Request: fold
Amino acid sequence: MRLVVFSGAGISADSGLATFRDSDGLWAQYRIEDVCTPEALARDRDAVIHFYNIRRKELLSKEPNPAHYAVKELEQYYDVEVVTQNVDNLHERAGSTKVLHLHGEMTKARSSLNPDLIVDIGYRAIEAGEKAPDGSLLRPHVVWFGEPVPMMEQAKKIVLRADILIVIGTSLHVYPAAGLIKYAPGNIPVFLIDPDEITYSERDVVMIREKATCGMELLRDILMEMLATEPAKKVEQTEPEQMPLSVQPVDDDISMPATIVFGDIHGLTFWKKVVSENPGYRFVFLGDYLDPYGYIETEQLMNNLKEIIQLKKDRPDDVVLLLGNHDLHYFCSDMVPSSRFDFLIAEEASALFRENIHLFVYAYQVDNCIFTHAGISEEWFLYDFKGDATKNIAEQLNNPTPEQELSLCRCGEARGGEPGAFGGIFWADVSELYEPLPGYTQVVGHNRVNDVCDHANNGGRIIFCDCLFYEKMLSIGQLSHKASCIDRE
Reply:
């Protein structure tokens, strides 16, 4: 899951760095217009440069505090990105690997003419008359009042993709940065850590009234408790090294052509290597092609989906493309928006799915083996979808009546739907699949697992395959007709 931390001066205050907004802070000693504006630099360059030289020297004497280290520690469990209003480097010194500075960086200077010509100066002073490589005078690499915030668009993209947002050490008074919280998806949790009561009426937030250090350590423990599994392996967003595939048998017997099943894709690309190394296989994609867990460039993400679609066009009889909830919410009005819905790609994704909708199916069936994105419970199929268990299941799911279309997109109580409801084939939660459709073996994604695993009850069986995140897939119907877990070792 992608966790975004939006930090302000309060997190650095616990390290002893003076802030502007405190009653005894920097604004008690300096006026904004004297040190924090382009006009101040033009009017009294020496005073402005001296002010930032002092602050840079002060930064050298300070250390990251437990709040910074708590943010870093969460990288073991989440894909953490930090967006900070602070110009210090305490997040980086604590070990955070993805930090975006909205307002610049104290340890850098830049050209007075070209804002993109940046020089790393560390903690040393900018000398009087010191020049940038282009011959202009050096100035602090800091965004001053009245100047545009060049990193704002990138920050918006980061917040738009968040699954969890933490706001820490900022009063949400400094705009445009304070407006970033509005870009967080409406269905994600937002935690606000501040010792003072902050009223924010535009959405629900979980308020933790503590200073940064105490509040962040408390929230770290809460977030760790929210995880149902051990720390996840980081997603590699580039092609993996050439690694051999090892096959570990699973006790099963499914009679069907040799087939490799890919769990939820979410932008991952190493399916290409598997396809190229197994030319005689059929390939079933269980859906959820977009909305990655880690940051992927939009062009790369969309190209990956286009390549999967092209594979289907090139090998129409060997490739099956299912749809998932993270696909349907881009073009189906009946689908409840899922986490990580990306407004930035919505128009392009909708057009791509609609143009190629004839290549996708809701369900795929070979004899008594059924493939869907999330799974079929007996309760949902018989009493909500009102299907006929004596007829071909996939044909019914792929050709629903208008009433059944609503049922297909049903989000059950376990995933935030109506009380007592069971999720349809795009939303079924593992807790709703305790009694699967009897008489069938199902192969599903959606519910993430560390490895291919199964559940049998009620005369039915479900094999859970949403483990592509861990570089594992399911292989069915090899020469021995055994189902196997393909692992990369």
